[in-house]
Amino acid sequence: MSENSSLKMDTPTNISLVGESVTESIEYKTISVFLVLLVCGVGIVGNIMVVLVVVNTRHMRTPTNCYLVSLAVADLTVLVAAGLPNISDSLVGYWIYGHAGCLGITYFQYLGINVSSCSITAFTVERYIAICHPMKAQTVCTVSRAKRIIAGVWAFPCIYCMLWFFLVDIQENRERRVQCGYRVSRELYLPIYLIDFAIFYVLPLLLAIALYGLIARILFLSPLPHHANATSATGTTVRGTCKDTAEGGKKGSRPGRPKSSSSSRKQVTKMLAVVVILFALLWMPYRTLVLVNSFVATPYLDAWFLLFCRICIYANSAINPVVYNLMSQKFRSAFRGLYRCQEQEVQRRTLSVVNKKVKMNKQTNK
Predict the structure, then answer these.
(1) In sequence order, what DSSP letters do the residues of 212-274 get, joined into one string?
(2) Phi/psi at 29 (nearest 5 deg)?
(3) Is position 143 within any domain?
(4) Does 228 fall in a domain?
(5) pLDDT score for 347
(6) Calpha distance 68→123 (Å, rounded)
(7) Where does the record place a coiled coil (predicted)?
(8) What are the CB-based long-range contacts (under 8 Å, 24+) for 348-352?
(9) Which of 86, 103, 133, 309 is the least crowded, having the fewest Cβ atoms under 10 Å away?
């Protein structure tokens, strides 16, 4: 969305951004474009890597990781649909994507945001079942069931977000510049925002607090059965192909010493809890701002604070792969394995080209 409407879209008001002269300054544009490019660039690369390592590495295809792939795709949608259009809008100062772009980009922004929230809820419930009900988890927490749940996680927001096709449109501001903005009155928007706020922020966090509290009681206060074998984001099988050697390093190398079931569960649960905490913290400035602006006569729309809120949103979509790399040995090894596989593929292609040239030169000399 445009600079004057990207975060105003969830602000129940159609007034222009306070301090528009600030957004036109070279200083603001430089900082805004740099930060958005940096965060979005890191996030796009990181989330693509998450998808690739889970899809291409067999022992990484677990129910929990399926939900993390769904979260990564949703975060990619947010970064591409929300972050990149803001760069062009900051540079040129007006909306360049037309009416169809306004509707489509807004739709995918909120689709990515809502699917992210639903994916977090899904893996939170999956972790609760896996830890607190390990016997039931053997039949409930499966990859096939996770895929069906993910289909529902995407289907519901896809339908729900169609509402935005009727809420936004291109319009001209006081400077006669075209923008993509909110077109209905504040009274109509307020209940829509409050429902969205409750379904995709408050309820997921309350559920996460309750379930992770129960999980913590089992993991840290009660001894786990030695034979428990709940589904986790870590795997036990290491394959010999390039795609599946992420954990063992180079092909034929000896895999690291496996961790106990309890230690593995704690590691995965801590990682997912951090993802939930970051979701709560990084969305809090924006959600708080919009909640306050919903009930005050004069909304607070300081340009620098709006930029801070927007960067927090993009950071939430970009930081998860960093968390996986820092807190999960499996993901860290898988990321390295993906790099090695790509490096080997480049070497094979280069060698193939060289061999073809050598053969052609031999034939020519004959």
Answers:
(1) HHHHHIIIIISPPPTT-----S--S---SSSTT-TTT-STTPPPPPPPPHHHHHHHHHHHHHH
(2) -60, -40
(3) yes
(4) yes
(5) 55
(6) 8
(7) none
(8) none
(9) 133
CA distance 162 to 213: 35
What's 15's DSSP letter? P
Residue 144 structure tokens: 């096939």
Residues lower than pLDDT 50 in the chain: 1-19, 225-259
Within a domain: 22:
yes
Find where tokens 């749940």 sit: 149
pLDDT given at position 229: 44
- CA–CA separation, 82 vs 44, rounded Å? 12
Instruction: Characterize 245-258 residue by residue with b for buried, 16 or more Cβ atoms within 10 angstroms of its Cβ, and e for exposed.
Output: bbbbbeeeeeeeee
* Phi, psi of 4, rounded to the nearest 5 degrees: -85, -5
Q: How many residues does the chain have?
A: 366
Judge contact between 121 and 74, C-beta under 8 A. no
Residue with the two structure tokens 């040129």:
92
**pTM for the structure as a whole:** 0.80
- Which amino acid type is present at position 103? L
How many domains would you assign to the chain? 1
Residue 168 in contact with residue 183, Cβ under 8 Å?
yes
Distances in whole angstroms, Cα of residue 263 to Cα of each of 169, 219, 226:
52, 9, 11
DSSP string, 40-73: HHHHHHHHHHHHHHHHH-GGG--HHHHHHHHHHH
Over the chain, what is the mean pLDDT? 80
CATH code of the domain in which 290 resides: 1.20.1070.10
**Residue 266 corresponds to which tokens in the numbers above?**
């704690």
Torsion of CA 68, 198, 84, 20, to 10 degrees: -160
Cβ atoms of 234 and 269 closer than 8 Å: no
Range of the domain at 304: 8-365
The amino acid occupying position 43 is G
Answer whether residue 2 is part of any domain.
no
- Tell the burial category of 82 from Cβ atoms under 10 Å away from its Cβ (0-12, 13-18, 19+): buried
The DSSP letter of residue 342 is H
